[in-house]
């Protein structure tokens, strides 16, 4: 088959690769209904993460099971499934405590920007629907796999509750979906930091009550001003840069919580500064598997439409253009259709 | 009067100073029933914190009110009071959310290693008892002011609950009282990291179920081994060094919580490492004021005896010897009697 391989920064190719096959009895092979490009794929694309060998890209996925290994029990060929970008057995102590993204057998999904993909640990990773969803549901189901699940975890880690004041730093797909998550969790005030019109518009539609366009010290001052100098009790950091983390810390009140879901790059925290800020911190790759059944239900019931973050759709063969559009911030997130 | 002044590292003097007086209408003057030396007093004593001018030492205190400013309403001369080492108005939004140690008017207490001391923000800081406590209660009441309150906050920040497994890093007075706090909160297993016989003995008496004498990588391996490779869901870091923080992070399970109450010195955290460990972090100066009424009640009811951490008692005039004994780890904590 043809699939997506990154050979170096800025060098994404749609090229012939081996067909995926069952390697372990716990594997499944799925045919992708659609796939997409993640903001985190831009780290290596931009040279911010090393590329030691050609990388088979893609970790967000939904589709139809075509084959399962001999030990797979919970999914079967013909079923529509969504899985987490973190592969987990869902039985180890960390999984059982709801942190499947720290599963003892954890692997990260790869190779999903392709027509077919191998999903290791299928029983612990995939959730099947009862019926085959309509085509119109596919973008929303696909978004659950990572960006929605990650935004949701960010809001959960930031301890968002009924009536909370929440600040979301980052207007990428994860930040926008953290806004949606905060709204679903009952937040009263949701302040999105965004200076891009299409993104801030979507943030408003997802539930943001306020948009702050200022950044850095000005952005912090603006939000403190809006919150009577108190700051927010919940802050989601959905970027991963030093500047974003500083902004998050600058707007969180003492005793408040920061959920940080952007993979930190070049972020160093001073212990004494962190101590005197007295903010709760919880980050990490999102345990999407914990939230999957609930989030898939919300999508299927039409309560949420997370797939609205896809503002560019391309055929898989044009995946390189999709990376370029996201790198240049012409697109929030690129959906790739599989013929 | 004579009081304690630190002039430089290792240079503590009991010398003549001005008597404290009411400087603001919200102040109170107390006559100390007893006072003591804190582990954090050793940072400047050891040259690990700068001493820019002679420092009037002492921030742990209990005693009898002798004078109040014109605006003080909740305490009056003749009452026995305990206060937090963090001075707070107890009315600002941070105080009202239970984080009095981040009060907008926060000051840190000083000058309490003396017969008399000025307590600013008396209404928001001091809690009076109904009756004058017996002399035997004084060490326990004094301990509430900082070390017990700080150990208690550490256990609370580490989310200790009924049935928890808890690791306490640090066998100073705060660590030992974090053990006591964890026991009071219903922890099932409390592992104290200690290699000093008198300290580990006291840890056991306060409720530790296990003592681990190994440190560093060996200590981490030992605790992982004791917890089926899972780690603890609650970890209290009560030292403040890089090594102690690494130990705390090494034994906390993903999704678990680290309450860090040792003031960090030379601790730097790598954002990406923190992210992938997926541990909750909450530190800071303890909001002792939040816990004061409850902890004073527990002491007066005889349910806890936190003053057992005082294993050296000296007259205030010999305060310099008290510092020396703690610096050389001959004493856990020095109580200073006031004539």
From TrEMBL, chains A, B:
CDD domains: FDH_like_ADH3. It comes from Rubellimicrobium thermophilum DSM 16684. Keywords: Metal-binding, Oxidoreductase, Zinc. One of its GO terms (molecular function) is zinc ion binding. InterPro entries: ADH-like_C, ADH-like_N, ADH_Zn_CS, ER, GroES-like_sf, NAD(P)-bd_dom_sf. This is Threonine dehydrogenase. The lineage of its organism: Bacteria, Pseudomonadati, Pseudomonadota, Alphaproteobacteria, Rhodobacterales. Its cofactor is Zn(2+). It holds the Pfam family ADH_N. Residues 8-336 form the Enoyl reductase (ER) domain. Gene3D superfamilies: Medium-chain alcohol dehydrogenases, catalytic domain, NAD(P)-binding Rossmann-like Domain. PANTHER family: DEHYDROGENASE, ZINC-CONTAINING, PUTATIVE (AFU_ORTHOLOGUE AFUA_2G02810)-RELATED (PTHR42813:SF2), ZINC-TYPE ALCOHOL DEHYDROGENASE-LIKE (PTHR42813). Belongs to the zinc-containing alcohol dehydrogenase family.
